[in-house]
Amino acid sequence: MATKTSAATAWRILYTLVIIGSLIPVFVSGYNLIDTIILFVHGDPDCTHPHLERDLGFAIFAFVLFLIGVIGVVARVDVIQAICMIVLLITVVLLLAVTMIITAGPQELFGLNHSDDGKKIVSVFRLEKYPRWAKNFILNDKDWGVFQACVVREKFCEKLDIDALFQEGCCSPPVYCGYQDINKTWVVPKSGLYHEDNNCVNWSNDDNKRCYHCNACKAAYINNYVYEWALRGAFMFITLVIWFGCLTFTFDIDDENNKREDNKLCSP
């Protein structure tokens, strides 16, 4: 009798841990949903979330999906858990596949690439490395215009706590341009190998222009966009692993309960 009681207690503790584990994604996605709603209502002061309407839609989708999944775990409805896992698996595959395809070009995100003409530029800032379809989708006139308006309105380059990639790609001319910093003003070089390059020609000391039209800025914008979605994919993959564990334990608990019922029926 004592052995059966100990086993039952162990299963209850295990089941409680399963429920707590399944609640973690709900709390995280709920926090992300609230944060996204706040940004959507009040605006993004750092301009690092250029597609808030999409972020909000995804946050709602993730929260609802995780909530339904928890209901399936708590109620021990295997069908609900299985359906949620299938939807989650499809979402993870799509997110990670798309981000991997987009970033397949710039593989050395923080290294120096050397092209045939000897030009050096950090690969993450090379716009030509990204697929044409990705550039057309992410850099469409509406979204790119919203971002440019945001960086001017929020005095983007004056903030030191924003994404370093954005600052490096959008707020200063690339090193290879040869600009000279004199009293916090970049002076155009008299000559240079790349003085006619897009990133050099479009640079301006005007706070409303800077390098916001540069290919380096566009590339940094794409990189940040893809990075955000890659993080979502990674989080959902972790959730998928947690759910798989929950579903496995749920099956084990059901099997154990079924065995107990069978033993009771078979007992004289």
UniProtKB/TrEMBL annotation:
This is Uncharacterized protein. It comes from Vaccinium darrowii. The lineage of its organism: Eukaryota, Viridiplantae, Streptophyta, Embryophyta, Tracheophyta.
